[in-house]
Design a protein that fits this description.
With 210 residues, the chain is an alpha/beta fold. Helices cover 44% and strands 19% of the residues. A 7-stranded mixed β-sheet has the order 3-2-1-4-5-7-6, with helices on both faces. Helix 8 links the parallel strand 4 and strand 5.
């Protein structure tokens, strides 16, 4: 991690300890190792893992508030969920849902090599999520580059109506996605500018009845 990366984290209001940094470095090394056989991230971002992926993911922490269980859907290479899990330690449990078995194997190796208590669920979101929600109360549900807002809300609804919070990364398409949502006043939306991408935003979703 460079000085500029540390400064970016400081602007978010927190610093990483030695153990957290060590875990993220292991993650970075494994990501580069697996990239050769499994296309985990865009090739152009491989040399910018900290700003483009790690810090991008970590910016959700100040927006999450207090939580005990966090679920990240469509986790892919682990952003943001795996990053959150590695730095959270015993403060909360992060669940990752990924349908691609090879990517899930990568997530499992990072979890194992960093000795982190991260729960990985292999399967399609629409199959895995209902079972998890029936047995666990999730305060946070997150996703990055996964689906349009309407689909994300369909996935997240069971969590949101129980008082959970949705944290979703969105790009230039956000305005049209919000405009095209069906009339539904069940949820409130707040957008926050991304600290790593001037064209991106984070959408915070709450249930208005919770």
């Amino acid at each position: 991690m460079t000085v500029s990366h540390a400064r970016a984290l400081s602007q978010l209001g927190f610093e990483l300890g030695a153990e957290q940094l060590a875990k993220l470095r292991i993650y970075e090394d494994l990501l580069k190792k697996w990239q050769g056989t499994l296309n985990l991230v865009g090739r152009s971002t491989l040399n910018e893992i900290w700003p483009r992926h790690f810090i991008d993911s970590l910016q959700l922490i100040p927006l999450a508030g207090t939580w005990a269980n966090w679920i990240d859907i469509g986790s892919g290479a682990g952003f943001p969920g795996l990053v959150i899990g590695l730095v959270s330690g015993e403060n909360g449990i992060v669940h990752l849902v990924e349908s691609d078995k090879r990517k899930a194997a990568f997530l499992a190796e990072v979890s194992r090599e960093t000795n982190s208590a991260i729960q990985i669920h292999v399967g399609r979101i629409e199959c895995v999520l209902p079972e998890l929600v029936s047995s666990t109360h999730f305060e946070i549900i997150s996703a990055r580059a996964l689906a349009p807002m309407k689909t994300l809300l369909d996935y997240a609804r069971p969590i949101l109506i129980r008082g959970g919070r949705g944290l979703f990364f969105k790009g230039k398409e956000l305005a049209s996605e919000l405009t095209n949502l069906p009339g539904d006043d069940s949820f409130s939306y707040e957008t926050v500018n991304s600290v790593t991408d001037p064209t991106a935003k984070i959408v915070i979703v709450h249930s208005v009845n919770s």
